Amino acid sequence: MFEDIIKAFYIAKKDIKEYYLKPPTISWGIVFPVVFTLAFLLKGGPKSSHLIPGLIALALFFGTTSMAAASIVFERKIGSFERILLFPISYLGIALGKVLSSFIFGMVSLATLIIVVIPFILNVHIFSPLLVTVLVLSALMFSAFGVFIAFLIRDPTNTMLILNSFRLPMIFLCGIFIPVSSLPKFLQVVALLLPLTYSVEAIRFAIEGTFDIIPPIVSILLMIIIIISLLVLSSLEIKNMIP
Fold first, then answer.
1. What one-character-per-residue DSSP string does 198-214 give?
2. Distances from the Cα of 188 to the Cαs of 53, 179, 181, 194, in angstroms?
3. Which of 126, 190, 223, 243 suits a disulfide with 137, CB 3.0-4.6 Å?
């Protein structure tokens, strides 16, 4: 297992080198979250500080999933993913490598938001051990989500279209702008099925000390469960790709 983890880092290193500057990665992974955040912060000014937890989660979400989609889509499209399958590593190790590359890129996009945008506009500086823990878990969870969706889609050319059909509605259902508790009951149920909800709740508690409907310990435990589950499901999808 330890050897698989080391090999997974090599896969992540390759992905970062090859796909970091791909147009879908830059446009949806960094530009979109930053522009989206600037639009809300500039309009609301200091009154927008309550949006920070959700906007941080949004930056992580789009950064990680965009990297996952870009790397897997390009490899499956040109047929180079089959070479990874020849690498002496387990299917779970391959899934982990893809998740790690997305995780690293997501943290870069998040750093852009936290270090440059939020302090510049609101003069707010946020940091705590709990927040770091929650951000790492969120990035891993979103990365695993993006990798699983990318492997689940059979036609790689439709990956970004289908991925955005998941991502865009989640912006308005997961408590970023509208509290989940304010949604109709059936939409609350939908929100509880979406990983972004738990990240927003946990980040909000780490920054503000409050939460909407999900206690932080529950959010953290569920994020860990989701990460493990998505890694296993992704490894199964990789195995199913072999004729």
1. HHHHHHHHHHHS--SSS
2. 19, 10, 7, 10
3. 223
**Other Cβ atoms within 10 Å of 39 Cβ, number:** 10
Residues in the chain: 243
Tens digit of each residue's pLDDT (9 = 90 or more) over 185-234: 999 999 999 999 999 999 989 888 888 999 999 999 999 999 999 999 99
User: Distance (Å, rounded) from C-alpha 152 to C-alpha 145?
Assistant: 10
31 lies in which domain range? 2-240
- 9 Cβ contact list (under 8 Å, min separation 6): 97, 100
How far apart (Å, rounded) are the C-alpha atoms in residues 159 and 114?
29
pTM given for the model: 0.85
Top pLDDT among 37 and 207 is at 207
| Whole-angstrom distance, CA of residue 120 vs CA of residue 42 | 11
Distance (Å, rounded) from C-alpha 186 to C-alpha 24?
Answer: 33
Specify the number of domains making up the chain.
Answer: 1
* Phi, psi for 123 (deg, rounded to 5): 55, 40
Spell 140-151 as b/e; 16+ CB within 10 A means b: bbbbbbbbbbbb
Amino acid identity, residue 185?
K
